[in-house]
Amino acid sequence: MNSPQTLAIIGTGMIACSLALALRKNTPKQFPHIIGYSAGDSCHQAKELGYIDQICSINEIFSQADIIILAAPLLINEQIISTSPAPQPHQLVIDVGSVKSSIMKVAKKYWQEHACHFVPCHPIAGLEKTGPKHANAELYTNKRIILTPDKHTCQAKIQQATKLWQTCQAEVHYMDAQQHDKILSKSSHLPHLLAFTIVAGQYQRDGKSCFEWSAGGLRDFTRIAGSDPKMWTDICLSNPTALKQTLSEFMQDLQHLQTLIEKQDGKNIQKIFQISKTARDNFYQEKDPKHSP
Predict the structure, then answer these.
(1) pLDDT tens digit sequence for 247-259
(2) Does a structural domain hold residue 188?
(3) Parallel, antiparallel, or unpaired for β 144-147 and 67-70?
């Protein structure tokens, strides 16, 4: 990755533009030309902000770029793969989606042996805000990036993708795609679904009163309900097997808590709450002693 390369972004939102900013900041001579495409007006915003130099079509991107970042919503990324030319040996294609198994299947189906040049990636970083105006060159600093290659993925491409993220000061990890989807359904997808459901349900039943009479708890817990609805719809549709199991387990836990409340079983209610508090406090104390709760 020493010679200058053309970087391409398909889906010029906050995630991809932050990656472009970080790469340009840390290796200014490596990517002198960044091109981009988006179905909406974010591409023009990204160009005005200087995050990309040129707006191109998807076909132009696949013919001109050395590194291609798929950063559109998940189902759109899969559609792009199904209609785009297969990557060439000199090209690296990565994505930044929150579900890995489905897009890997699509890449193998349509790109066949050329899918070896595709390295699925998931940056465990982001905000509930969207759009290039929220891009931040420091977004990936000290954040975890999960790569989910399989035995068919080209080792040189895995190394290239790893170096790309390390250039952004990120911490790279490797995981099986199905394991990734199962873990993220619990650590990320479920919390988002709960936030969306709580806000939508209470607002539809009670209107603005649910916000007017809330303290910081509702606001803090449902912050992520401000995330992109299209992106999270695609995540739900792309990870149904893991989410079905995760939602089932959560509903069992919630039903158990409801039963304890009905029985006025304060001892076991408090026991659940204490387990939760201790687990959370210990985790964040170990992760960052200076900023533990």
Answers:
(1) 999 999 999 999 9
(2) yes
(3) unpaired
